[in-house]
Amino acid sequence: MTRLHLGISAKRAAILLLPVVLAACAGSDDGRSITFTDDRGVAEQPYPNNYRAELLAFMRTYLNNPVDVHDAAMAEPVQRTVGGRLRYVSCLRFTPRESDGSYREVRERAILYVDGRLDRVAENATEACAGAVYTAFPELEKLTR
């Protein structure tokens, strides 16, 4: 074999072995998965101190038209078990302006926090928001583009 042919074979072998090497690096000796946040599951989660500002920033991008939202109300975050994990959950009710300028039914969303930061919005909020105590959220009604 020529020297050039050996060099190409070594490169191919390295490329083929790369996923195996990376998988070995991703493993954990204690059997836990690697996550960007320390998902403590049922452990005490930190309170999301900046939840209102984070939610407003998120809603500006979540809504197709964040202008002229009506009937905005929010419940302060409380700890609840969601999907087997302890999370802070804040509930939100609002009526967004539709693309044709009309308003339809009130929407309810559950906002989930992990490690004190907004993690995701659950559109099916019936169970997570059962018994939530809502107060007016005028900042959402004043959003601009």
Short description:
The chain has 145 residues and is of the alpha+beta class.
From the structure above, extract its key features.
single chain; 145 residues; alpha+beta; six-stranded antiparallel β-sheet; 6 strands; 26% strand; signal
Describe the overall structure:
- By secondary structure, the chain is of the alpha+beta class.
- The protein has a domain at 51-141.
- Helices cover 28% and strands 26% of the residues.
- The protein is built from 3 helices and 6 strands, in the order H-H-E-E-E-E-E-E-H.
- It has helices spanning 3-26, 51-62, 138-141; strands spanning 70-74, 78-82, 85-95, 107-114, 117-122, 135-136.
- Strands 1, 2, 3, 4, 5 and 6 form a 6-stranded antiparallel sheet that branches.
- The longest helix is centred in the N-terminal third of the chain and has 24 residues, at 3-26.
- The model is unreliable at 20-37 (pLDDT under 50).
